[in-house]
Amino acid sequence: MAHAYLSERIVTPDGVVSGALLVDGGTIVSIGPVGALPGDVARTDFGGMAILPGLVDAHVHINEPGRTEWEGFATATRAAAAGGFTTLVDMPLNCLPETTTVAHLELKRVAAAGKCFVDWAAWGGAVADNQEHILPLAQAGVPGYKCFLIYPGCDGFTMIDREQLERALPFIAESGLPLLVHAELAGPIEEAVDLLAGADWRSYRTYLASRPDEAELEAIRMLIELCRTYKFRLHIVHLSTALALPELAAARAEGLPITVETCPHYLYFAAERIPGGNTLYKCAPPIRSEENREALWGALRDGVIDLIATDHSPCPPAMKGLEHGRFDKAWGGIASLSVAVSVVWTEAVKQGFGLEDLVRWMGSAPARLAGMEERIGSLEVGREASFVVFDVEASWVPAAEDLHFRHKVSPYVGEKLTGRVVGTYLRGVTVFGEDGFASVCEGRELRLR
């Protein structure tokens, strides 16, 4: 049965419009004036609340199979639904086995079956010794690959050095898929740590000094050079340092196929405001200065940074080491799936941005990165009716029970945020709303090929 969803602010590729989103059989039938609706159609009027396309998070650590006690498909997709995301793209590490072969990808598909509140896809991994698996992974449906230029924190997903990367790049270029890179090199970090002998590791300043901007800068310079040589699609994940922005802008102006993401925590927090011993703020690369934060917002304004992804990287609470507060011993990762859109919107409003910007950063641009822009990330007639109702003016303070992921641990608990997801719809079916979550999990894997 057809159902019309009315709003004064429906965010479409052609702008923000007032009217009705008409859905029938899980598909968007029309977006237009309320007066054009059939007289007998059922209606839900959201008034001033905005209707956004289902958001896309292209950087999530679901950790299943193998480390489901860290997160898992059921809890991650539940948190995603509460946060307005209708598609997650899972990173290939922190699960066991890592998603570096087609056989391992099939195990992930088995693990996900029947558990997902929203849709998902899986990046493949590019590691030290799996070059022969690159093209088979593409044929099996992954939208791209992830690699680390530095130890990733889990032994099974091996970092890749320049020589190994150059062995993989011809296959990655042939696939036409993007390579997502954790762009830090070990050399500058090792040098910085050597200078910190005897330092106070409960101090955030010590941790920040241990992950200098130069680690990102040197990695990005190397990657730009390789992109120029091999002509592969390069994507820089979780850019932290604003010092890399001029070189990235120049490389893009040169025509190199480079895209860039940053994360809510780099846009919301600043090093000067992080308390000593509070390891909930630890991530890699680190949260940098207030000046750096402002420059990242400027890069979003200028288009040098294309998208925002959460890098949702949860772990059991004990691994954050709050009892000792040492940044060198704690797991590096920030969990934010259920609150990320509110975090970004809170700061975006202060910066003068609007709903169309929010949807571009967290909807259409990540969909494009994953090669799925014709299916997800925007509201268009003929597409599946996956959308979000967002109370733009709502002011709220997240509590632990609002997080919905497995472990209720996040630096965003207690922050005053603006904008809140009040409903998430997947193919026209409510998966999160005032009555809680759907009773049946109908999320699907989205395969690229």
Task: Please characterize this protein's 3D structure.
There is one protein chain. It is built from twelve helices and 18 strands. It has 449 residues and is of the alpha/beta class. It has two domains: 46 residues, no CATH class; 349 residues, TIM Barrel, CATH 3.20.20. Strands 1, 2, 3, 4, 5, 15, 16, 17 and 18 form a nine-stranded mixed sheet that branches. Strands 9-10-11-12-13-14 form a six-stranded parallel sheet. The chain has a three-stranded parallel sheet with strand order 6-7-8. Homotetramer.
Short recap of the structure:
The protein has 449 residues and is of the alpha/beta class. 29% of the residues lie in helices and 22% in strands.
Please name the defining characteristics of this protein.
single chain, 449 residues, alpha/beta, TIM Barrel, nine-stranded mixed sheet, six-stranded parallel sheet, 18 strands, globular
The helix fraction, in percent, is: 25-40%
By DSSP (H or I, 4+ residues per run), the number of helices equals 12
CATH superfamily of the largest domain: Metal-dependent hydrolases
State the name of the first-level CATH class of the largest domain.
Answer: Alpha Beta
Low-confidence stretches: none
Radius of gyration: 21 Å
N-to-C span: 32 Å
Spell the H/E element sequence.
EEEEEEHEHEEHEHEHHHEHEHHEHHEEEE
Topology summary:
Blueprint: E1 3-12, E2 15-24, E3 27-32, E4 42-45, E5 50-53, E6 55-60, H1 73-82, E7 85-90, H2 102-112, E8 119-122, E9 124-125, H3 134-139, E10 145-148, H4 162-175, E11 178-182, H5 186-194, H6 204-210, H7 213-230, E12 233-236, H8 245-253, E13 258-262, H9 264-268, H10 290-302, E14 307-308, H11 340-351, H12 355-369, E15 387-396, E16 417-426, E17 429-433, E18 436-437
Parallel strand pairs: 1-4, 1-5, 6-7, 7-8, 9-10, 10-11, 11-12, 12-13, 13-14
Antiparallel strand pairs: 1-2, 2-3, 5-15, 15-16, 16-17, 17-18
